[in-house]
Amino acid sequence: MDIAFVLTQAITQAIGVTAIIYLLATMGLNIQFGYTGLLNFGQIAFVAVGSYGIGVFVIYRGWSLWASILVALVLSVILSLILGVPTLRLRADYLAIVTIATGEIMRLATKSLDPLGGSQGISGKMGDDFYALNPFPEQDRFEFGPLNFSRNDLWVVVVGWVVIALLLLLTWALMRSPWGRILKGIREDEDAVRSLGKSTYLRKMQALVLGGLFGTLAGIFWAVAKQSVQPDSFVPDFTFFCYTILILGGAARVLGPVLGAIIFWFLLVFIEQFLILLVQGGTITFLSTTQIGPIRFILVGVGLMLLMIFRPQGILGDRKEIRLDAR
Amino acid sequence: MHRGATRLVLLVLGAFVALFALSGVANAADPSVTAVVTDADKTPIPGVAVSVTSADGFSGTGTTDDEGVATVLVPASGKYIVTVDEATVPDGQSIKDGPERTVNVLTGDKKVFFPVGSGDGDGGGDTGGSSITLSRVLQLVVDGIILSLLIALAALGLNLIFGTTGLTNFAHGELLTLGAFTTLVLNAPPIGLNIFIAAPLGVLLSALLWGWGQNQLIWRPLRRRQTGLIAAMIVTIGMAIAIRYTLLLFFGGAPRSYEQFAGQPGVEIGPVFITPKSMVLSTIAVVVLIATVLWLRNSRIGKATRAVSDNPALASASGVNVERVIAVVWILGAGLAAYSGVFLGMTQNVIWTMGQYLLLVLFASVVLGGLGTIGGAIVGAFVVGITVQLSTLIVPTELKTAAALALMILLLLVRPQGLLGRPERVG
C-alpha cells in the first residue's frame, strides 16, 4: 500500500456511492436549513423511509422497484406532515428535538419489529429492476485512469450524479422563484414575511416536505446500491455528518452541498487511509489500526465545531445569511 | 455566593459519604460467580445447568436453585467464561444475547444475568408483551422512579443552562458520560480510590473541569463573539461527537464497571426486587434534587439565576452579574449530570454511549415539563421515567425509549409549552 493507493481510494469515495447518498440527503437539508432556517436534525428518518420503503415492498411484498419508490416518496410526505404539524408553529429548537427523536423512534422500531426486518435488517436483490436497465457493455471492471468500478457500481454512480444534477437544477430554479424568496425571507425574518400576508407555516411545511423527499431519494439510492438495509446504519450521526458537509460547502448555496460532500469524503478517507498506512509502516506506534475509526469521528466533530465558530458560511456561503437565531 | 456554594458542596459531599457508609456491605468474601437465570417476567428458572471456565484450565459447574441462582466458587480473581446450557432451559427457549458471557471477577461475588427470551435487545431487561401482574407493575413503577431520579438530575442541569443562556445543549448527555468516566478513572487502577471517595471527587472534578472549564473555554468566548443560538447548538453537536469518540479512543468500546458493588445482589421488599446500591443512590438523588430546588428558590445566587432565566437584559440592568450566574449554572449542571452518570454507571455500566442514549430521554423530559422551567424538568422526568418502564408492559423492551419520545410528540400537539411552561407562539 502506498500513497497513490491512498489517493485513489479517497477519490473513489469522494465521487462514489457513499458520497452520493450523503450529498442527496444534504441537498435536502440545504433546502430546509440553508434556505428556510428549519432545524431538521432527523434527516436520517427520511433516509430510513426511503431504504425501508424499498426493502419492505420489494423484498417482503414482491412489488416492482418503481412502485416501491413511489410508495416510499408518498410515505416521506406523510412523515413530513407528521413532523411539521406539531412543531412548525413552535420555536426552531422544537423541530430539532422532535426530528431527532423521530429518527430514533424509527431506528428502534425497525430494529424490534419483525415485519420491518428486525435487528437483522433486510437483504436481497432489491435493486434488480434498476440493474436490468444497465446499458454498459458486459465486462467485469471499467477503468478510468487510476479509478475503476464494477459494471453495476458504474451504473449506480452515473445515475446518481445525473439525478443530483437534475435536482441541483430544480433547487436553483426554485430558489430564484418568488417561492424561494419567501423561504429565504422566513429564514431572515419570519414576522416580516407574515406581515406581508404570506402563510409562513405553509411555506415551511412545503420546504420540509421537499427536503424530506431529497432525503428519501438518498435512502432509495442507498437500498438499491447496497442491496441491503440495516437498522443500525440509521443513527443520528448520519444527519450530523450531513450538517458538517453542508456547512463545509456553504449553506444556502446550490453547489455548497456538492463541494462539501466531495471534500468531506475525500478528506475523511484520505486521512483514514493515510493513518493506516503510517501505522502499518511503523511510523506511528502509539495507535493501532482499530483506533483510527474513532479518530475520524473526532475529526468530524471538531471540524464541525471549528467551522461553525470560525467560518459558518463554509467555502461558498455568505456569512450574513447564516446569522440564524433560535427565537 | 461563595459561602453558599461551598455549603452546598459540603452538604452534597456529606450526604454522599454518610449514605454510602450506611449501606456499606462488606464485600470481601471468596471470589465466586453467580449466574441468575430469569424469564421475561423476572421469574427465576430453576434447574438450569451453568458452567464456569477460565483460560488457565479451571472448570466448575452448578445448577440454578428455586431462585434461579447458581453460584460457582472460583479459585482466584480473573477472567472467566460463564456458559448456560440452553438445552436445560425449559420450553426450548434461548438466552437473550446468547448463552455465553465473559466476566471479570475481582473480589467477592460476580453476578451474571441470563434473561431468557427471544431477540437481541440492547442488553438485559425483560421483554414486553407477557402477562400483566400487579407485582410486575409495582416492580416497573419502582424501576421507573429510579430512572426518573436519574433523568431529573441531568434534565435539571439541561434546563438551567437552557434557561440562562438559551443554549439547547446536545452535548449534555456527554456531561453525564464524562462524569461517569471521571469517576471510573479515580476508581480503577492505578489510582484505585474506593468508590466512596472516587464518586464525590469525580462529581466535583467533573463540575469544575467539564462544567466551569467548558464554559470558560468555549461558551464565554462564543457569547462574546455573539454567536447565534442555532450556531451554538450545532457546535454542541460537534462537541458531543468529538467527546464520545475521544472516550472510545482512550477507553475502548467494552462496558466497564466500578471496582466496588458491581454485582451487588438485590433484596426483596414485598413484591419488589431492588439492589441496596440503587436505594442509596436514589436517596442521595432525592436529597440533591431537593437541595438544588431549595437553593434556587432561596439563595441569593439562586434568585439571580431565576432572574437571568426570566430576562437576562433586565437582570443585568438590575445589577446581577450575568456571567457569574452562567458560570454557576454550568458548574451545577455538570455536577448534577456527573452524579447522574455515576448513578447510571453503578446501576448499569460505564460505556461511551451511555449519555447519548439518555440524551433524547432528557429532551423528552424537558419538552414535556416545559423547556427552561425548573419544576418542569423534574415533573417531566417523572412522567418520562415511569412511562419508559411501564411501556414495557405493552411494547417490546427495545421500544421503551420510543414510547417516551412518542409521548413527547403527542404532548407537543396539544400543549406545546409543556406541562409547566409558559405559552410562547412564534408562527
Q: How would you portray this structure in words?
A:
The complex is a heterodimer of chains A (327) and B (427). Chain A has helices spanning 3-15, 17-35, 43-60, 65-87, 92-112, 128-131, 151-175, 178-188, 190-195, 200-226, 236-249, 256-280, 292-310, and strands at residues 122-123, 141-144, 147-150, 228-229. Chain A has 327 residues and is mainly alpha-helical. Chain A has one domain (3-115, 149-322): ABC transporter involved in vitamin B12 uptake, BtuC. In chain A, the strands form two sheets. In chain A, strands 1-4 form a two-stranded antiparallel sheet. The longest helix of chain A is centred in the middle third of the chain and has 27 residues, at 200-226. Chain A is globular. The mean pLDDT of chain A is 91. Chain B is of the alpha+beta class and 427 residues long. Chain B has two domains: 32-127, Sandwich (Immunoglobulin-like), CATH 2.60.40; 137-414, ABC transporter involved in vitamin B12 uptake, BtuC, CATH 1.10.3470. In chain B, 56% of the residues lie in helices and 11% in strands. In chain B, the strands form three sheets. In chain B, strands 3-2-5-6 form a four-stranded antiparallel sheet, with no helix packed on it. In chain B, strand 2 and strand 3 (59-63) form a beta hairpin. In chain B, helix 3 runs parallel beside helix 5. The two termini of chain B are 40 Å apart. The model of chain B is unreliable at 16-29 and 118-129 (pLDDT under 50).
